Description:
Layout: E1 2-7, H1 10-22, E2 32-36, E3 47-49, H2 53-60, E4 65-70, H3 73-79, E5 93-96, E6 102-107, H4 114-125, E7 128-129, H5 134-137, H6 143-149, E8 152-154, H7 159-168, E9 175-177, E10 186-190, E11 198-204, E12 207-213, H8 219-232, E13 240-246, H9 253-262, E14 266-269, H10 271-275, H11 285-291, H12 297-305, E15 310-318, E16 321-327, H13 331-334
Parallel strand pairs: 1-2, 1-4, 2-3, 4-5, 6-7, 9-10, 10-11, 12-13, 13-14
Antiparallel strand pairs: 5-6, 8-11, 12-16, 15-16
Helix pairs in contact: 2-3, 8-9
Amino acid sequence: MRKLAICFNENGKRIIEKINTGSDKKGISPVEPFILSGSTETPEGFGQVKVSVAEWTSSVFLPENALIFVGAAGIAVRALSGLPKDKLNDCPVIVIDDGGRFVIPLLSGHAGGANKLAMILADLLKAVPVITTSTDVNGVFSADTFAIENRLTIADPAGIKKVSVKALEGKKITLSIKDYPPEEEADIIVADDTDREYSLLFAPKKYTVGIGMKKNMDREAVERVFLRILCENGIDVSEVYAICTIYLKEDEEALIFLRNKYRIPLFSFDSSLLKKVKGTFSSSEFVEKTVGVDNVCERAAMLGAGSGGKLILKKHSENGMTIAIAERGSIWGRFM
Length: 336
């Protein structure tokens, strides 16, 4: 995930520099620093924002980005006007006052990870993390956090509020993990489908997508093929459990772009592991000579799918890219 930080004065500049100085120790990548044009002299390494804060925010308010405003919360609130749409897909947004005393996640605290990032930044700056999500401040079960951490699709987001209210009232939350409706009613059901009464349905992410590609492919071109192939096979991107590839390709910008934009884990495997995958796969002598295994996309998809997985789309080749899709095993194999 790209972290873009914007500041408006010398104090904000120093805070961003402090974040980047200590980022390695906290195991996070540095932030990309920006400063509003005319607010102070543009420091070395900082991007200059020559448009309004609102225009800049609108251009970078994307699911694959995390935005950090170092300044007054009011600046961020006005800049965000009209942009937030969906708590599960909104860009994570954090505000840090230019005194470096408070770190406040404003948007996407759970789904986008703003709360966790705020805690890391607060620790780095020796500041106070101001977490306002009800389930966190009251120390109770968070349905959306549970779904995200367990790679589950939230089939009916409206149900999150119902479960959260019950948890905040101190009532017991019941969770049923079955591939058929339970005999008794439950607050949360992890299942492919159900007709029973429930407050919230979590659907296991069913598919893994294996991808092989030439070096340095255009990320938008790869994205177009990725989304089109999913659509042609009746699969929504939210149902993808992981993107899988060979370790030699794990740093490809196009794959990292897909990982960040759609919040899908990227699994990479050594060629020796891919060779051990059982099944009948398309074979290429050229690919084997190049990367050490005769097929990347099909084998990677199957390896990511785990025990009981099955290949539902064999290798599709297009303009230097190969893609295959596997369906994961039973719900017990998919709920990990």
